[in-house]
Structures are given as C-alpha cells and as structure tokens.
Specification:
Length: 246
C-alpha cells in the first residue's frame, strides 16, 4: 500500500542552511525531516517541500509531502516523529493526501512576511527574527514603491547574481506594508519568487523610504533588468513563509 502523506510544519530557520538538502554547508530542514521521519518508519523517505527557503529564513505554515508504504496512522506518525525532531522544527498537522498531491508542484500561491523592527536598539533576543532599521522612513512612499512590484514582471534586477535561473518572469499578486507596534511588516503574495527577490525588494523599498533611492529607479530596474538600480538585500532573519495555498 503506497500512501501519500501531506504535513504542515513550522520551523525556526536561524541555524539551518535553508530547506533543501545539500551535500555540504551544514544542516537543512529537509535533511533533518527525512532523518526523523525515516527513523520512525524504519525506511528511507524522500520529503518534498512547498518552497525553497534561504539559510536563516523561518516558516509558520510550510507544507511537505512524502510517500510511504508503512500503515502507521498519520497522527501517530506525526506524534512519534515530533519527539525525534529538534525543538526548532515542529509538525503541526499530518494527513493522508490524494496520490497526485505534491507539496511543491501543486502550490498556487505563496504568502511571505518580512518583519522590520524600528526604535533605538533591538532587544537582544529579537535580532535573529527581525531586521533592525532605526532610520526614519516615509511609509506612504514605501507603499508606492511596493505597488510598482505588483503584477507580471521580469524580476532579473531583483534576483541574486548567483542564481542559475534563466526565466525571471514572476507574478506578484499583493505587496503591501502594515504597522505592527514598533514593527513594519512587508507582505508579499505571488505564484513564486526568484532567489533573494523578496529580501532585495525590501532593501530597495527601505532605501526609497529613507530617501536614499529614487522611486523611479524601481520601474527602471524592472524594465531593464539592471541590478545597479536596486539596493542590497536585507538579512534572512526577518523573512517568514506565512502560508502556501493549493
């Protein structure tokens, strides 16, 4: 009996080299999950994730899927496997899925949040989970900057130079800013995002808000693909995969 299992997890990515398993560079979420689930099932397992995440990025509702012929009920598998996982990874839900379900291939939309902390100095235990930005910024101008990214665009200018992607066309459905106490939250929803894209966008928008970059450089960068017309990426610590829609 070959079963397809779908699970929703959350993780603190501070000490991981992203989701996808690698042959070097340190521990990954995928690698730890495969080891823990495989130990429970007493058989190697291949775990598929809904999205690649950079080193240091966190997730609130991250979907995975895997196949197994073990008859153990999904809830029992979840409970036993959680005991084998580090406290930085937790399986929130686990269920039987349709045979055709695939966590990555069937994802229709992804929702990310980037958290920016304002104020005089960040609390000691906050810096691994938010980006500290003490400068004054024009929030209305920043929202105007975010509006430029909504729609179908070529995001080559807002991608890392070290990506192997050749097609930079992506659809951003929503990009907006909210104030949450002393924090600014950048919200992004779209079909997918290229390597470092959201972190580069946030860095660029913050520079626009602080008067370090002209708003007009954003449409120019989108049009030309010129990376010199955007800012540096912000740290991974403030980025969260909030939810994935199927």
């Amino acid at each position: 009996m070959n079963r397809n299992i779908k699970a929703v997890i959350e993780f603190d990515g501070s000490h991981f080299k992203g989701f996808q398993k690698q042959t070097k560079w340190g521990p990954t979420i995928q690698g730890v999950l495969e080891q823990a689930i495989g130990h429970t099932l007493q058989k190697k397992v291949k775990v598929y994730g809904c999205s690649r995440t950079d080193a240091g990025v966190h997730a609130c509702d991250y979907t995975i899927s895997f196949k197994t012929d073990n008859p153990i009920p999904a809830e029992n598998l979840r409970r036993v496997t959680n005991k084998k996982l580090p406290l930085s990874i937790y399986i929130k839900q686990m269920d039987e899925a349709d045979p055709e379900f695939h966590a990555r291939h069937l994802a229709k939309q992804k929702y990310y949040i980037y958290k920016v902390l304002r104020g005089q100095r960040p609390p000691v235990f906050e810096h691994n989970y938010k980006y500290y930005f003490p400068e004054e910024a024009d929030l209305k101008l920043m929202q105007q900057a975010l509006d430029e990214f909504v729609g179908d665009h070529n995001f080559k200018a807002f991608s890392s130079k070290h990506t192997d992607v050749t097609d930079f066309s992506r659809s951003v459905h929503q990009a907006y800013l909210t104030e949450e106490g002393d924090e600014l939250w950048f919200h992004f929803m779209g079909t997918g995002f290229v390597y470092h894209m959201l972190r580069i966008i946030v860095g660029t928008v913050l520079d626009v808000g602080a008067g370090k970059r002209d708003l007009l450089t954003i449409p120019e960068a989108l049009e030309t693909g010129d990376r010199s017309k955007r800012s540096k990426k912000v740290p991974a610590a403030g980025l969260y995969l909030k939810e994935v829609f199927y």
